[in-house]
Amino acid sequence: MHKNRVVLKNVNIYQQGLADILIDEGRIIHISKEPGYEVGDAVCHDLKSHLMVPPYVESHIHLDYTYTAFHPSAINRTGTLFEGIARWSEIKKSDDVQTVKERAKRALKHQILSGIQYVRTHVDITDPDLTGLKALLELKEEYRDLVEIQIVAFPQEGLYCYPKAEELLEEALRMGADAIGAIPHFEYTEELGRASLKKVVELAVKYDRMIDVHCDETDDEHSHFLEQLAYLAHVNGIGARTTASHASAMASYNNAYTFKLFKLLRRAGIRFAVCPAENLYLQGRQDSYPKRRGITRVKELLEAGLNVSFAQDSISDPWYPLGNGNLMNILDIGLHACQLMSLKEIENALDLITVHGAKTMNLDAYGIKEGRMADFIILDAGTPFDAVQSRADVLCSVRHGKLLFKKEKPVCQTGHELLV
Questions:
Q1: How many CB atoms within 10 Å of residue 78?
Q2: What region holds the Amidohydrolase domain (predicted)?
Q3: CA 60/CA 215 separation, integer angstroms
C-alpha cells in the first residue's frame, strides 16, 4: 500500500453529506459520493459516518494576555473593560519575551487540542519594547506546522492616549504584523477616536494590511465608531479586509438609527467578530435592571447577509477569569445569548466557528474541497445538530494530511469506535 495515499470512507462532510475522500501527499484529490469507491494502493480507514468539519477558526483572541488573571495587579474589582485595561498596563511592565511565549504556548496547546488550526491574535503594541509582538512573531514561526497565526497590531491603551503609539504601530507593521487594530471608544475624545480610525485605514492601505478594530465595546448608545469604520472601508474598497470586533454598542442603538446603519454595513461588506462570553461578562456593568447583554445584533447581522464569527477573546486575564480555548463552549453560549435556536440556525451554527471565521481572517484556501490541503477535524457526532447539542468533542485533527492528534479509543454517542 502507498502510505501517502489514504482513503477515508463513510465520512459525513459538513454541509456536503456522506462521501469517501482520497488524500494524496497531504492534499484532497477526490471526493466521491458513489458507493464502493476504492483506490487499490491506498491505506483505507472507515469513519463510520462521523462528522468531518473544516478546522475551527479562532477569529479574535489576545494570546499575549493569557493566564494573567492571578497576577497580583490583575484584580478587576468593577469587572469593566476600562479597569481591565488599567490592570493590564501594570501587568505588562514585568513581562519579557520568554514569559509571554510560555503563556501563549500554553493557550495554543489548548486551542490546537480543541480543533483550532487558525488563530487571529491581537497583540498589544503600546509598549516601548514591543515585547508581546516579538514573542508572538516568534511563536507564529515556531508553530506554523500546527496552526496558522495572524497577528493584529493593537494599541490597547489608545493610539492617541499612549505616548508614541502611532510610531509603535507603524513599527509593528514593518516587523510583520498581518493586520492593524484600534480602540476608538477608549480614546480621550470622540474626535481622537475618529482620528484613530482614519490613521488605521491610512496605514492599512499604505502597508497592504487587513484591519480589525475593537469597535464600540461599550454600552454607550452614542458610540458610533462602527459607522465611520464602515464608511472608510467602503470608500477605500477594503470592506472584505476589515473587521469590527465586539460592536457591543449596537445592542443599545435605537432601531431607526440601526436601520439606516445596516444599509452602509451591507454596502461596505465588513466582517464582525463577536465574543459572546466576554461581553456577557463585561457589559451592562453600569445597569441595574433591566441589564443589557452587551452582545451586538448577531441575528440581524446574519439575516442581512453579513459575516459574523464567534470568538473566545480571553483566556484567564484581567477582562475574563475563565476561558479554555474551546470554541464549542463559546458557540453554545452565543447561540443561547443571541437566541439563534431555530432548527435551521442550529444546523448551520458551526459556520460561526469555521467558515465565517475563515472569511474574517481572509483565508482563501480554507474548506474541504478537491485540490485543497487535507485540513479537517472529526467530531464525536454524526450530524451538525448532534454536534451542537452535545458540544461534541474533537476526536482527531488533521493538518496538511498529517495527524495532529487522535483521542485514544474514542467512542461516539452511538457506541461506535472511531477507526483512524
A1: 12
A2: 46-404
A3: 13
pLDDT digits (tens, 9 = 90+) for 334-345: 999 999 999 999
pTM for the whole structure:
0.95
217 is catalytic: yes
Taking a C-beta distance cutoff of 8 angstroms, is the pair 197, 179 a contact?
no
Antiparallel, parallel or unpaired: β 271-274 and 394-399: unpaired
Percent of the chain with pLDDT over 70: 96
Is 383:346 a contact under the CB 8 Å cutoff? no
- 320 φ/ψ sector (left φ>0, alpha ψ -120 to 50, else beta): beta
DSSP of 346-393: HHTGGGGGTHHHHHHTT-TT-SS-TTSB--EEEESSSSHHHHHHHTPP
What residue ranges in 162-317 does DSSP mark as E strands? 179-180, 210-215, 242-246, 271-274, 308-310
The rounded distance, in Å, linking the Cα atoms of 280 and 256 is 25
Of all helices (H) and strands (E), which one includes residue 22? Answer: strand 17-24
Q: Is the peptide bond between 290 and the residue preceding it cis, with omega within 30 degrees of 0? A: yes
pLDDT at 412 over 50: no
- pLDDT value of residue 347: 97
Q: Is the pLDDT assigned to residue 309 strictly greater than 90? A: yes
Among candidate residues 148, 187, 217, 278, the one labeled active-site is 217
Q: Write down the residue that cell numbers 465520512 correspond to.
A: 11
**283 contacts 248 by C-beta, under 8 angstroms:** yes
